[in-house]
Design a protein that fits this description.
Layout (H helix, E strand, L loop, with lengths): L4 H33 L5 H10 L6 H14 L1
């Protein structure tokens, strides 16, 4: 049984679609695990970090740090 060019192209397209769906699902799972282990920095983390360095941060300093980190992304 011989396959026509149309059948071959159809199989390639189906394979690419299935590969894209599997790749999306795997990357989504990987990112969820990564963000659970390494959560994004929030204000509470900045307060803790600055207090560990021996400083008592004001809300203005925390806001400046958050703004600087968001701009760096």
């Amino acid at each position: 049984m011989t396959m026509t060019l149309g059948h071959e192209i159809l199989l390639i397209v189906i394979g690419l679609v299935i590969g894209a769906v599997i790749g999306f699902l795997l990357s989504k799972t990987f990112m969820k695990k990564y963000l659970q282990k390494n959560p994004p920095i929030n204000e509470q983390m900045i307060k803790i970090m600055m207090s560990q360095m021996g400083r008592t941060p004001t809300q203005k300093q925390i806001n400046q740090m958050m703004k600087a980190m968001n701009n760096a992304k």
